[in-house]
Amino acid sequence: MKRLLWAVVLFGITGLTRLGAAPAAQQAGGAAAGAQVRTYYIAAEEVDWDYAPLGMDMMTGQPFEGTSAAYATPGPNHIGNVYRKAIFREYTDDTFTARKPRAAQDDYLGLLGPILHAEVGDTVKVVFRNKASLPYSLTMPDDVFRPRHPAGDGSSIDAEGIVTQGVPEDTVQPGATATYEWGVPGLAGPEPGGPTSVAWIYRSRVDEAKDVSSGLLGGIIVTRRGEANADGTPKDVDREVIALFNVFNENLSWYAQADRKSTRLNSSHGYISYAVFCLKK
């Protein structure tokens, strides 16, 4: 019998948390027979993001009230519900001319980037195009995913001090394209005896606090070896639901000056909700 997978991730500027039990044993890393290279084409783009597109609380179906109402409409002392953001969006190929449609059931993801999938032992390859006006990047959690760099004969040095070919991984200039590859070791997969998959966050880290506050983050789901479908999704799950609770500090956003008076917005996937504000109490 298949099931609904809720992947709940709490994100803070200083790091990320994977929820669940933590047995001492870990799956072994390294390449596995039948491992795939899973390729994604992702761009950073700038948009005017509406935190309250329906004009009401999307979780309760009721008008905004209390604290959330103050940030859902423009006023003399605050911007309201529309902010300039940078977001990750997926394309069909490396020409970056046709955006890959987001399934209707995934509209709830809001400003989050596309959900990536991999199986333990795979390689995740991301061709990243920076369509924004500022330098950005795309990176996975360093402590679990293994970046695969070209031979050390390049001329650029990334944030980890590793010599690479072309532009450094952590700084892709506007209009430029970079290709990233990460190995997916056992450490990035689910714990033995637990669910068949686990969720992590990817984000930009030119200036992590500012980049994430500007909107550049998304999720990747890693499935235990042998438990994934051809597209990388878990075999035993009918539908995945990612729940990310995050404070977008618009005062830290690269676009804060353009937005004039900014604030902190508690949201789920870039949508203001009274229920989310309650979680902060």
Describe this structure in words.
With 281 residues, the chain is mainly beta. Helix content is 7%, strand content 35%. Strands 2-1-13-14-15 form a five-stranded mixed sheet. It has a five-stranded mixed sheet with strand order 4-3-6-10-7, with no helix packed on it. The chain has a three-stranded mixed sheet with strand order 5-12-11. Strand 8 and strand 9 form a beta hairpin. The two termini are 38 Å apart.
Strand content: 25-35%
The strands making up the biggest β-sheet line up spatially as 2-1-13-14-15
| Classification by helices and strands | mainly beta
Quaternary class: single chain
Number of helices: 3
Query: Overall pLDDT, averaged?
Result: 77
Helix content: under 10%
Biggest beta sheet summary: 5 strands, mixed
Taking the alpha carbons of the first and last residues, their distance comes to 38 Å
Please count the beta strands (DSSP E, at least 2 residues each).
15
Radius of gyration based on Cα positions? 19 Å
SSE string, helix = H, strand = E? EEEHEEEEEEEEHEEEEH
Low-confidence stretches: 8-30, 151-157, 266-281
Shape: globular
